[in-house]
Amino acid sequence: MIQLNDVRRDFRRPRTSLLKPAPVVHALRGITLDIATGERFGIVGESGCGKSTLLRIIAGLDRPTSGSVQVEGREISRLRESRLGFLRDQMQLVLQDPMSSLDPRMRVRDIVAEPLVAQGKPHPPERIAELLESVGLSADAAGRYPHQFSGGQRQRISIARALAPDPRILVADEPVSALDVSVRAQVLNLILEIVERLDLTLVFVSHDLSVVRHVCERVAVMRAGEVVEVGATDQVYEEPAHAYTRSLVAAIPHLADALAGRTAADLAAGAKMTTDRQELDRE
Ligand SMILES: Nc1ncnc2c1ncn2[C@@H]1O[C@H](COP(=O)(O)OP(=O)(O)OP(=O)(O)O)[C@@H](O)[C@H]1O
Ligand SMILES: [Mg+2]
């Protein structure tokens, strides 16, 4: 479904001196990956390792400096924006912070209809109602504004919007990182349920290995613009082959739980009981 071959992306930083060349950030240093149709594929790694850059390139929102990116056998890295229509139909994004990705002045019905409007497709009220119900919201949410919802509900609205054009691929960049721990598991389970029901391919980015383990069958571990390890999620967790993966595993407090076979749902249930997590999202 998605094939990346030696994808590189350099960013030029603003010049700090007239005498020196502009510094270059090598955000991606030769990424080669295959993501199969229907697969739930995770990408983990610490902040700044290039996860979002990679997702933007997969989604055709950014171009690699070199290398090839194929989606269903079509090279997208050098297509003009006007030729990327097929990708916009097939692939939709869910981002980290639903508050900043939802326009506060728009009603939910217009937010959800946005991708359909952009593609000049019909968006009757019944379709909007169906989409809202498919993410566990009631149809009368359509007339309200984003601030009238909790963080978890707002992320449900962005998921409904992503599903509107009937995509085949869902690309999610830290979709639960901005949410309270108590609702993370609910939103993750919703994503899982939708991906299964609609038979979607999922590309899921997170810095949190326990979250990726809950959702993904296969995972790539990134470090400083490179993939250091790819494999079945359980395998990568239980027997990390690369020293960096082992250090990631050791550094993440959840990981002791993840290694003990507990899932994000258990972790969230546990978190509910701790007093510093009393800000329960009212869902
Ligand atoms: N538009 C840009 N211009 C310059 N540098 C950039 C740009 N976008 C990303 N970078 C740099 O590329 C590197 C990778 O950034 P990226 O946002 O992909 O990391 P990330 O893994 O998503 O991090 P996080 O977990 O914090 O979201 C970083 O060093 C970042 O500063
Ligand atoms: Mg990022």
From TrEMBL:
Leader peptide range in chain numbering: none
CDD domains: ABC_NikE_OppD_transporters
UniProt xrefs under SMART domains: AAA (SM00382)
SUPFAM superfamilies, sorted: P-loop containing nucleoside triphosphate hydrolases
ABC transporter domain ranges (all copies): 2-249
Keyword Nucleotide-binding attributed: yes
Database matches in Pfam families: ABC_tran
Alphabetized InterPro entries for the sequence: AAA+_ATPase, ABC_transp_ATP-bind, ABC_transporter-like_ATP-bd, ABC_transporter-like_CS, P-loop_NTPase
GO MF assignments: ATP binding; ATP hydrolysis activity
PROSITE patterns per UniProt: ABC_TRANSPORTER_1 (PS00211), ABC_TRANSPORTER_2 (PS50893)
An example Gene Ontology biological process: transmembrane transport
Record keywords: ATP-binding, Nucleotide-binding, Transport
Family: Belongs to the ABC transporter superfamily.
Listed name of the protein: Diguanylate cyclase
The species this protein was found in: Luteipulveratus mongoliensis
Lineage: Bacteria, Bacillati, Actinomycetota, Actinomycetes, Micrococcales
